[in-house]
C-alpha cells in the first residue's frame, strides 16, 4: 500500500545538547505506538551503548510513525534523528536534506544556546519549515515569554505559536504531532518518473550486513529491483526494502516522499557514498541530485597499543569500527617512542574520544594516544604543498616556504559575568574578535580562532571558567599562514617524537617550559639523572632535571612478611606495564597526554 504524498510529513528535531531532543523523540514514538511498552527502552533512537550512557546522539537514525490526526486522517511521520554535537555537523546537514521541516526544541529554562543557533542554521540552509517547541515547561525556572523573545530576536523566526511542552511528563505531545501535520509541508515527488533516491546514510548490521537509508524523491523502489549508484556506478539487486518503526519492517515498495532502508549484499559501508543518487539500472533518471562533499577528518592523533603484541588486534578492531564509520580513517605509523601504531583521523575531538573509548571498552585494548593535531598545509620551497598530519613529520625548515593552519569561526554564548574570563581565554589562544552582542541577558561572542589552539582543551577550559554555563559551537573556515615552529622535547637527550608539536612562535618558549615542568613531575626518578629539554630546531629553550633515586619499594618491609613484599613487587610490576621504556627511561603512559595540557589558568 502506498502512502499519498499529502499524508506524509518528514522532519528532524534540532536542539542544543540536553534540551530534550531524545526525550521528545521517545515520546513521539510512544504516543504513536511505534513500540510496545515492553520494547520501550529510554532513548530508543540512541542505539549505541556509548550514546545511551553519555546521553549523546552520534549516528543519525530514522523512525516512521503512524499518527491519526484530529482531522480524522492517518499520516505517516518520518522522523530523522540528528546528532547535536559540532563534530557531527556534517551528518546534521545531510540528514536535513532528506526532510522538509524541523522541530526546533529549546529548553524553556535555558533559552537559546550556541548549538541551537548552529543547528537551526543548518535547517534554514535546507529550506526547512520550522516549528519552535519550548520544552521543560514543567521546570519552575521556565520563562516562556523570555525564550520566545530570544527565538524571535536571535533566530528571526516567529515564536508566537511555539508549542509548549514537557517531554518528560508528556505534557502536550499531541500538540507537537498536530503541529507537524498542520504546519510542516508535505513532500513533493512524481511516482511515475524513473527512480531517483537520495542515499542519506548507511551502517553495518551484524545480521543484515550493510543497511542503506534512502529518501525517495521520484519513482518507486522495490525488492528485486536492480539499482545503480550514480556516482560509483555500482549495480546491486535489492534483497530487502523496509521501513524503520524503529524495528525494521519489510515493505513491498517505497514511494516518493518516503524514507526507508534497503539491503543489497553490499560488502562495506565504504562502498556507499552518502549523498549519492540511486536510480533504476534499466530505466535511469536523467539527472543526479546535487550530492554532498565527503566529510574530511580535521583532527589527527596517533594511537599505539601499550602492549606491542596487541598491534594486530588493534588493527582488526579499527577495521571493525570503520565498517560503520567512514569518517574515521587510520594508517600505520611507527614512533621511536611508542613503537608500531596508527595515525588516525577524526571529525573532531568528541569523535576522537568516542573511538578511543570504544576501542578500549568494546575491544579491551590498552592504548596510548598522542597529542591531537590539526592538518597543516606546508608549502615547500620547491613549489609543492603537503598536508601535514603529524608534527613529527615536518620537513626541514630550510625547505619550508610557509605553514598554513586551519582557522575556525566560533560562537560562544555566556552569562555576562563570565564574559571577561572568556574573552581572555580567546585572546590567549590567538583569537580575533568579530562581534559581541547580547541575546537577552547573555553575551554572544564571535571569534576567529586557530583550530590548533582549540583542539586540545579549549572546550574544557571554557566549561570550567564559566561553571558549565557557556556554550560553544564552531565551523571550519579557511587556512591562514601562521608563524609556527616545531617544539621538540628531549628526554635524556633523545627527542620524543610522540611529544612533538607545532606551536606559534610567540608561545613556544612558555609552552616548552610548561612541558618540561610537567614531565619532571610525571617521570619517576631513575637510577641516573634525567635531563628533560624543550627545543626549537637546534636551540634548547627550557630544561628541567629528574634527580636520581633508587626506588626500593620493599625497603620499608623489614621483618619477614613475604606476602606483603610480594604484593608490593607485583604492584610495582603492574606500574611498569603502564610505562613506556624510552631509551633507558620509563615514561608513564599518562605523561603523553598530561604534558600537553596547557593549563593556562
Ligand atoms: N524537567 C524536564 N526535564 C527534561 C524534559 N525533557 C528532557 N528532560 C531531561 O533533560 C535531559 C536531557 O534530555 P535528552 O532528551 O537526553 O536531551 P538531548 O537534547 O537528546 O541530548 P543529546 O542527545 O545529548 O543531544 C535528560 O535528563 C532529560 O530527562 C522536560 O520536559 N522536563
TrEMBL record:
Top-rank lineage group of the source organism: Bacteria
Cellular localisation: Cell membrane
Ranges of residues in domain Tr-type G: 6-188
Pfam families cross-referenced by the UniProt entry: EFG_C, GTP_EFTU, GTP_EFTU_D2, LepA_C
Alphabetized InterPro entries for the sequence: EF-4, EFG_III/V, EFG_V-like, EFTu-like_2, G_TR_CS, LepA_C_sf, LepA_CTD, LepA_IV
Residues bound to GTP: 18-23, 135-138
PROSITE patterns in UniProt: G_TR_1, G_TR_2
Keywords of the record: Cell membrane, Elongation factor, GTP-binding, Hydrolase, Membrane, Nucleotide-binding, Protein biosynthesis
Bilayer topology term: Peripheral membrane protein
Primary site of residence: membrane
Reaction(s) catalysed by this chain's protein: GTP + H2O = GDP + phosphate + H(+)
Entry EC no(s): 3.6.5.n1
Record keyword GTP-binding present: yes
The protein's enzyme class: hydrolase
The keyword Nucleotide-binding is annotated on this UniProt entry: yes
HAMAP family reported in the protein's UniProt record: LepA
Annotated family: Belongs to the TRAFAC class translation factor GTPase superfamily. Classic translation factor GTPase family. LepA subfamily.
Job of this protein: Required for accurate and efficient protein synthesis under certain stress conditions. May act as a fidelity factor of the translation reaction, by catalyzing a one-codon backward translocation of tRNAs on improperly translocated ribosomes. Back-translocation proceeds from a post-translocation (POST) complex to a pre-translocation (PRE) complex, thus giving elongation factor G a second chance to translocate the tRNAs correctly. Binds to ribosomes in a GTP-dependent manner.
Protein name: Elongation factor 4
Source organism of the structure: Devosia rhizoryzae
Amino acid at each position: 500500500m502506498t502512502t499519498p504524498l499529502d499524508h506524509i510529513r518528514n522532519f528532524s528535531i534540532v536542539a542544543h545538547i540536553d534540551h530534550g531532543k531524545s526525550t521528545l523523540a521517545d515520546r513521539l514514538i510512544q504516543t504513536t505506538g511505534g513500540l510496545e511498552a515492553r520494547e520501550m527502552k529510554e532513548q530508543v533512537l540512541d542505539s549505541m551503548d556509548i550514546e545511551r550512557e553519555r546521553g549523546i546522539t552520534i549516528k543519525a537514525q530514522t523512525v516512521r510513525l503512524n499518527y491519526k490526526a484530529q482531522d480524522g486522517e492517518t499520516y505517516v511521520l518520518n522522523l530523522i534523528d540528528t546528532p547535536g554535537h559540532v563534530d557531527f555537523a556534517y551528518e546534521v546537514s545531510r540528514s536535513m536534506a532528506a526532510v522538509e521541516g524541523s522541530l526546533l526544541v529549546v529548553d524553556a529554562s535555558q533559552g537559546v544556546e550556541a548549538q541551537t543557533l548552529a543547528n537551526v542554521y543548518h535547517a534554514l540552509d535546507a529550506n526547512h519549515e520550522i516549528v519552535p517547541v519550548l520544552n521543560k515547561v514543567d521546570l519552575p525556572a521556565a520563562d516562556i515569554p523570555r525564550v520566545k523573545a530570544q527565538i524571535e530576536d536571535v533566530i528571526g523566526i516567529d515564536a508566537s505559536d511555539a508549542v509548549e511542552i514537557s517531554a518528560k511528563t508528556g505534557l502536550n505531545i499531541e500538540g507537537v504531532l498536530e503541529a507537524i501535520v498542520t504546519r510542516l509541508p508535505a513532500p513533493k515527488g512524481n511516482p511515475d518518473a524513473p527512480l531517483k533516491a537520495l542515499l542519506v546514510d548507511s551502517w553495518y548490521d551484524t545480521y543484515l550486513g550493510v543497511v542503506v537509508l534512502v529518501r525517495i524523491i521520484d519513482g518507486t523502489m522495490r525488492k528485486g529491483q536492480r539499482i545503480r549508484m550514480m556516482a560509483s556506478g555500482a549495480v546491486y539487486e535489492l534483497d530487502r526494502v523496509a521501513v524503520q518503526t524503529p524495528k525494521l519492517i519489510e515493505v513491498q515498495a517505497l514511494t516518493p516522499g518516503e524514507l526507508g532502508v534497503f539491503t543489497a549484499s553490499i560488502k562495506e559501508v565504504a562502498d556507499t557514498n552518502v549523498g549519492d543518487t540511486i536510480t533504476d539500472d534499466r530505466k535511469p533518471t536523467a539527472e543526479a541530485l546535487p550530492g554532498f562533499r565527503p566529510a574530511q577528518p580535521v583532527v589527527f592523533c596517533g594511537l599505539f597499543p601499550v602492549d606491542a603484541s596487541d598491534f594486530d588486534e588493534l588493527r582488526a578492531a579499527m577495521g571493525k569500527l570503520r565498517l560503520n564509520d567512514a569518517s574515521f580513517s587510520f594508517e600505520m605509523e611507527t614512533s621511536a617512542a611508542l613503537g608500531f601504531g596508527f595515525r588516525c583521523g577524526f571529525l573532531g575531538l568528541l569523535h576522537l574520544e568516542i573511538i578511543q573509548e570504544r576501542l578500549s571498552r568494546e575491544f579491551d585494548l590498552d592504548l596510548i594516544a598522542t597529542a591531537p593535531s590539526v592538518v597543516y598545509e606546508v608549502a615547500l620551497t620547491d613549489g609543492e604543498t603537503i598536508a601535514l598530519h603529524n608534527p613529527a613529520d615536518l620537513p626541514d625548515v630550510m625547505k619550508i616556504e610557509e605553514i598554513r593552519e586551519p582557522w575556525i569561526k566560533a560562537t560562544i554564548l555566556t552569562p555576562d559575568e563570565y564574559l571577561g574570563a572568556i574573552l581572555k581565554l580567546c585572546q590567549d589562544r590567538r583569537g580575533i574578535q568579530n562581534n559581541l552582542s547580547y541575546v537577552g541577558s547573555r553575551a554572544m561572542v564571535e571569534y576567529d580562532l586557530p583550530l590548533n589552539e582549540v583542539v586540545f582543551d579549549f572546550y574544557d577550559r571554557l566549561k570550567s571558567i564559566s561553571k558549565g554555563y557557556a556554550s560553544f559551537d564552531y565551523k571550519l573556515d579557511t587556512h591562514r599562514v601562521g608563524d609556527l615552529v616545531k617544539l621538540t622535547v628531549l628526554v635524556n637527550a633523545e627527542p620524543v617524537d610522540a611529544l612533538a608539536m607545532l606551536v606559534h612562535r610567540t608561545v613556544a618558549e612558555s609552552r616548552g617550559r610548561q612541558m618540561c615542568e610537567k614531565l619532571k613531575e610525571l617521570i619517576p626518578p631513575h637510577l641516573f639523572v634525567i635531563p628533560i629539554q624543550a627545543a626549537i630546531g637546534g636551540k634548547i629553550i627550557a630544561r628541567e632535571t629528574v634527580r636520581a633515586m633508587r626506588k626500593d619499594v620493599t625497603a620499608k618491609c623489614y621483618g619477614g612478611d613475604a606476602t606483603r613484599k610480594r604484593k608490593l613487587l607485583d604492584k610495582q610490576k603492574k606500574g611498569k606495564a603502564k610505562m613506556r621504556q624510552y631509551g633507558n627511561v620509563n615514561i608513564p603512559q599518562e605523561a603523553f597526554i598530561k604534558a600537553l595540557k596547557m593549563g593556562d589558568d
